[in-house]
Amino acid sequence: MRQIVLDTETTGIGHAQGHRIIEIGCVELIDRKLTGKHFQTYLNPQREVEEGAFRVHGISSEFLQDKPLFKDVLHDLLQFIEGSELIIHNAPFDVGFLNAELTHAKWPKSLRDYCRVFDTLVLAKEKHPGQRNNLDALCKRYEIDNANRQLHGALLDAEILASVYLAMTGGQASLFVDDNLSVKNAKKLEQQSSACLQSNSPILSASLDEVARHDEFIEFIVKKSGVNYWTF
After folding, report:
1. Of the residues 59, 116, 118, 153, which has the maximum number of CB atoms within 10 A of its CB?
2. How far is Cα of residue 187 from the mean position of the Cα atoms in its chain?
3. Structural domain boundaries of the chain?
4. Which of 38, 104, 152, 214 is catalytic?
């Protein structure tokens, strides 16, 4: 299966307000393995980059002056992504901008005419409800090195997202990592359970504190599994 992990940088938030794409970055996965092939380009948006957006990605209007227009790279982009499944974090944002650029270029088709779209933010919310699920938070949760991500960049973020996607869909990458229950506490509970099984002591009823800690641990396991109901 061929998948393309895609990210964009823009002049600001909201294509409906006239903002444009200034960078596209894509990396290729085939059968869940990075191939080393990528597509990356900066674009001249024909408008100013907002100060708030510049603080996020560090790409200035001056830098973009001599870069190609979207219509100039359109064929190469479509050739790279056609027939693939696009992996995007918060897909409505990037897909909305890309479709807006297709409209600006007077292109008769939309992005979904060329590929399917998989939103990793939707998956992250299902797996980790009630937690932060931006790319930095997911890197921390799945122990993925993002030390080079001082500023956002489309190609760098696409590479990081590829690692996050593979971790999220490849099994229990970090079962005992959670904001509410530390690794130390989880191991302590496991050791206590093991000691009870090996003991020849009489069976005693659990204290209220032990029951509370047990319930906390079970709630943690349910939360990590992504299931919000009990199955017997």
Report:
1. 59
2. 29
3. 2-168, 183-225
4. 152
